[in-house]
Amino acid sequence: MYRMNESPDIPSEELEKYSSAISLSDMEIFVFPELLYSLVLANIMSPRIWAWKNHDWFRKLDTMKPYKKIQRLKQFIIDHYEFNLDLDTWGLTTKEAEVERFAPFMDEKTIGQSNALFGYEGDKHYFSLDIRKHFGLDKYTSNAIPYWKTETLEAMDAFQFKEDYHAGAGECVSLSTLYAAALFVICDIPLEDIFLLATPLHSQNFINVNDGVLTNNRRLVTKNMWFNGTDLTARAQRALRHEQITIVANNTGYIHTVYPEATIAPDSFELFREKLSAFTTTAITYEMLANFLRDRSEHQTCFQIKYLRHGKEQYLPIERAFAYEHGSPYKVSDKATCDKLLNQVDEYDFYTAPIPNRIQLNKLADYLKGNPISHFDEASMTGLADKIECTGDMDRKMSVLEGLVDFIHLDPELPDITNKTFTGPGPIELKPGMPRDEIVEYLKGIRQTHRVADLAFYASRDLATTDWAPFLKAAFERNPVCIEKTKTLSDDALFQLFESLPNESIYDGTRVAQPDEVWNFQRGDGLEKAITFADIWKSRYPDASIELAARGREVALKIGGKDLLFESSKGLEKIISL
To answer: How far apart are CA 443 and CA 54, in angstroms?
Structure first.
């Protein structure tokens, strides 16, 4: 007889971490950073991602260069997945419950650094909107917080079964871990060149290809795009500009802002630091100056642009030039097309004489031509300042210069390596081109010595190769949606509902869905339906005795004086007392 929360293999102090590998909420990943890369490995082991290799979209991929491969992958993800941050998907918990749960591992103040809903205020943008209203929490009590669970690839695909969804979906951590797995499996990018970055409000990846590539939800950001000054890029920059990077992880390990031990290889972390710094820094050129003004529109009123029309000099407020960029292929920042843009501007927008107290962008363009300036070069910066003519307005000049330097140079706030102890089990040594079966066998072989590899099998929900206690703990403690959505049903109606659900799992083989996945996607294997039914029943009748017996092709549930029988294709055998 197997009783819930009993485990012959997992120490009691480890059970919370292992059960968190099942539920995978954002707050759990912050407390247990090993989980971030465990989900990447779970997705790498998934047959679903390997099936992509046979998709027509990826034909002849092996003839392409790495960045071209990544672009193909990006479009595939955009076509097949939506960004989802719906509060109702995975339900709500309370701040008090989560603080108590994590108390043995992290205090409330430290947890508050991880999540806006625990008090974090790193990105003032959200708080200017009212954080609870922005995320839709204002309709709940002040202590309510969402689970915001990270989805496996299978759960992301299953959103197609949810009402009002037409494709797969996932939140930012789901998309970043999916990208990391697909970059390795589909694009043959080495794992050591894929770095996962987690901040309190976002998750994305840095890929060491060319000058670097950032994944940002479904999209990609190159170094050129990082400095293009568009609204889309400004949103992509927000996490790195305004938030502490709390976790950096790759196949060698992780580093976390809170914990004194880091498992990532020091040389790997240093490579990442150097590459990311180079990615977020560029020289001051005319193009960068114009991109800066596009991004920081508050400085546009300091500038004008001279244009020769019919042999006569005319002057245009720069904000009018940027207004004409919308819907035009021509850009102020592109000297080759700027004149074509200005030719589209209505003549009435121009002045016949220089506009007082405005800097002429053309003069700076001539100065910067062939003379890019590094913000580190004090003499060159002094020379640039002299060329910025703001007569009698030194504050205005300094504001422009400070804003420009901030635009062309970002020093991301990485975990501080001071006083960190670097120790770990070593890298996950998977190589591009390895077949899936060989990868799975390799990860099985290192489970006893590599915690991340062991947790990957829990994240993949494989009950044939894992202890059931973490799965059941997560199922009965952190699946509120199925309970909430069925609370108005009578017991008899509940029986009838589960009989009507399609008997199909979103997971292959012996991998098993959690109750809220069964409910959200309205389908489940007999074992999954039995566990979900038991979860709902236990919430109604906490003192009820429940016995679940999985016997290969069938699952028997003794509950409420009734014997229920479900057909299963999982082939698992276990008797559980709940």
So the answer is: 24
Segment (H or E) for 195: strand 194-199
Please provide the DSSP assignment of 538-568 as one string.
HHH-TT---EEEEEEEEEEEEETTEEEEEEE
pLDDT at 371 over 80: no
| One domain, residues 112 and 132 | yes
**Count of beta carbons in the 10 Å neighbourhood of residue 282:** 21
Asked whether the beta carbons of 426 and 533 are under 8 A apart, the reply is: no
Answer yes or no: do 185 and 334 share one domain. no
Is the pLDDT assigned to residue 260 strictly greater than 70? yes
- For the chain, the domain total comes to 3
Distance CA 256, CA 34 (A): 10
Whole-number Å distance between alpha carbons of 278 and 210 = 11
Residue 456 has pLDDT above 90, yes or no: yes
At 128 the pLDDT is 55
Mean pLDDT of 71-81: 97
Closest listed residue to residue 511, CA positions, set 458, 557, 548: 458
Does the pLDDT of residue 392 top 60, yes or no? no
Which pLDDT score is estimated for 398? 83
Backbone angles phi, psi at 479, to 5 degrees: -135, 70
Global confidence as pTM: 0.92
Q: List beta partners, residue 2.
A: 576
**Do 153 and 34 sit in the same domain of this protein?**
yes
- The domain containing residue 197 runs over which residues? 2-281+412-459
In a shared domain, residues 171 and 108 = yes
Give 252-283 as a DSSP string. Answer: TEEEESS-SEE-S-HHHHHHHHHHHHHHTB--
Average pLDDT over residues 547-563: 93
